[in-house]
Structures are given as structure tokens and as C-alpha cells.
Amino acid sequence: MRRVLALAPVGALLGLGLLFAFFGLRDDPRYLPRAMVGKPVPEVTLPTLADGLPDTLTAPGKGPYLINVFASWCAPCEIEAPILVALKDQGVPIIGVAYKDEPVKTRAFLARTGDPYTRVLVDRQGRAGIDLGVSGVPETYLVDGAGRIIDKISAPLTEDDARRLAAEVRR
Question: What is the Cα–Cα distance from 112 to 52, expressed in whole angstroms?
Fold first, then answer.
């Protein structure tokens, strides 16, 4: 009986190892969740960076737009900033969401990199990030005229991404 009790932890570890091997190793580590694609933009109200008044992730007016989740502490966000500014120069409306960031640092970041946003919402606790399904920053969402998320890019935007997104917004 003592031998069985002594081997129980070894058996439990072996069982956990098999579960890990079966479930954990079959998943693709490069997989990025896109749970919100095809669904409406979440109805989240956040303060704006400009004046602290409440606003939503929906864009006023008609037509497609982008939601870009960024942070001043995010190095890849700084890399994609010129691409976002170029999209703004092409007339692409972009709502920025400052994710888990301090407004003072967000303002300094935008002053340094350029401000491509029609407005910036402050998500200090990450609530909108949870509702959007953010897996990290930067992330960009393409939203159609009906307010439905139709694409998600979970990486810094490239020139190719910018061309494709600008074409989608102009449709």
C-alpha cells in the first residue's frame, strides 16, 4: 500500500504530462484569436484623450473606419506610426485606443510620432481591450459602415496592410 501511495505523485505528473502533450502541443503558437471578426463593435464608453468626455468606439458618419489599439510603451506601435499617419493623409478615419497607458505619456507619444487619429479614447484599465479581444498591441480593426468588425491585424501595420485597408475603406 505504501508503494502505491509513493508512486501516486509520479503517476499524477505522468498523467499531467500526457494531457499537456495531447492538448498543448497540438495548438499553433502563431495562432492569433479573431473572435470579434464578423461581430459588431463592442458598446464601450471611454474618456477621450482631448477632454476626458465619454465617447464610444463607433465612428460618426457613414462608411468604414479603423480602430487602432496602441500604447506609448509599445515599440512596435512607434514603428507603425508613420503608416497610420499616411493612412490619415489618404482620408482614412482612425479611432485610436490608448491601451493601459497614462494620458500624459500618450500625448507625448503622439507629439513625437504624429497623431493619425480622428479621436483617441483612453483605456487605462484595458476594459475595451478585453471587449475587443486584444491579444497585444498594436492591433488594428477594420469596421464596416454597419459597425461590424470585418478584419483584425494583430501586428504592426505594413505598407501592404495599409494599401489593402485604404482600399477597403474607400469601397
Answer: 21
Copy the grid coordinates of residue 124. Answer: 487605462
Rounded mean pLDDT of 137-150? 94
Q: What's the N-to-C CA distance of the chain in angstroms?
A: 74
Return the residue matching grid coordinates 461581430. Answer: 39
Pull the grid cell for residue 52: 476626458
Q: Whole-model pTM?
A: 0.81
Measure CA 91 to chain center.
Answer: 22
Q: How many CA atoms lie within 13 A of 98 on its CB side?
A: 26
Q: Given this model, what pLDDT does residue 31 score?
A: 43
Do 106 and 81 form a contact (C-beta atoms < 8 A)?
no
What average pLDDT does the structure give for the chain?
A: 88
C-alpha cell at 80: 507603425
H, E, C per residue of the chain = CHHHHHHHHHHHHHHHHHHHHHHHCCCCCCCCCCCCCCCECCCCEEEECCCCCEEECCCCCCCCEEEEEECCCCHHHHHHHHHHHHHHHCCCCEEEEEECCCHHHHHHHHHHHCCCCCEEEEECCCHHHHHHCCCCCCEEEEECCCCEEEEEECCCCCHHHHHHHHHHHHC
